[in-house]
Amino acid sequence: MSVNSAAIKKLVDEKGVQLHETPEDYYKAYMKATTKILDKYSEKDPFFKEVRASLEDWADLTVPYQGSGERCLLQDGQDRSGGRCRQVTDATQGVGKRWKPGGACPARTSKNDSKQIGDLVSHASTTTMRGPAPAARRLVEILDGISVVTGKASSVLVLPMMCILVYEVVSRYFFNAPTIWAGDLALILYGIYFMVASPFCLKDGMHIRTDFLYNRWSTKTKGLVDTIIYVFLYLPTHVVFLEIGWKYFYKSFKQNESIVSSPWMPIIWPMKFAIPLSVFLMILQGLSETIKSYYAWRHGVFYWESNPHGGPSEEGDACEAQA
């Protein structure tokens, strides 16, 4: 929540983005359409009707209290946030009335009040959570950028690989003139492509993981487990793979090795060079993921939201939890 608020404030202050309130007519039309659909399915499915009734009972209990929670006001005269909400509370005195049990919900704030509260919450959010250190943010940006550039560059190999295979199929089946080089060349290009693109895949969280366990954990638990895995398993094994892969390539390069099982007999060391290169790039991206995981473990927030390894922090910041 605090990261989003700081980002919105930056867009408004530095980029000139204008924020507009959603028109009242939209909410009315939205609720009318929603009610119509809910009524339709409630009539068809008794279980759906039961779930809907349960949600409505929960809303009747909780919605009246949201007016005070969203403004981060004091609860029973005490600051429940460890002092972090008081800045917003003290500055918003008189900007909205706190709801009291048994009373009506507070009236909707005016546009000026909403802007004032938004500015204050954004300022308080920036103060209470500044994010990772600038050096860490810069390092992650550089390492992620390397993975993006190499991943997109290797993806270009798909085009010649596709053309080679199409040429082979046409030559073989339409002109009865198969080539001796198309299969080998396509194999070499594919090997280079999928190895060099692996760090880009890791950055976007596309490698296999046991989601049925991982997704049940809190953000801090995800960060702790990921940090342990990267530090004690991932990085040490990749260092070993780097040494082995380099020796494997260098021996092939010195011998100018070729594929003896192929009648074309192409040299194979360019493909083998992709092995230590991809491992080295995976180490760089692993360092980036270690920083991200450590921050998630210590702060309960996936600061780099493009990383899909987890969702929003379950702990959240204190002001949001008070609501």
Alpha-beta content class = mainly alpha
Our Rg estimate from Cα atoms comes to 29 Å
Low-confidence blocks of residues: 68-128, 306-323
Mean pLDDT: 78
Order of helices and strands: HHHHHHHHHHHHHH
Distance between the termini: 12 Å
| Beta strand % | under 5%
| Oligomeric state of shown chains | single chain
- As for the number of domains, it is 2
Shape: extended
Note the total helix count: 14
Portion in helices: 55-70%
Number of DSSP-assigned strands: 0
Largest sheet features: none
Describe this structure in words.
The protein folds into two domains: 2-128, no CATH class; 134-322, no CATH class. It starts with a helix and ends with a helix. It is mainly alpha-helical and 323 residues long. The protein is extended. Mean pLDDT is 78; it is low at 68-128 and 306-323. The chain has helices at residues 2-15, 24-44, 46-62, 66-70, 86-91, 111-128, 134-155, 158-174, 182-196, 198-203, 211-214, 219-255, 269-299, 318-322. It contains 14 helices and no strands. Helix 1 crosses helix 6, helix 8 runs antiparallel to helix 9 and helix 12 (219-255) runs antiparallel to helix 13 (269-299).
Task: Give the gist of this structure.
The chain is mainly α and 323 residues long.
Topology:
Elements: H1 2-15, H2 24-44, H3 46-62, H4 66-70, H5 86-91, H6 111-128, H7 134-155, H8 158-174, H9 182-196, H10 198-203, H11 211-214, H12 219-255, H13 269-299, H14 318-322
Helix pairs in contact: 1-6, 2-3, 7-9, 7-13, 8-9, 9-13, 12-13
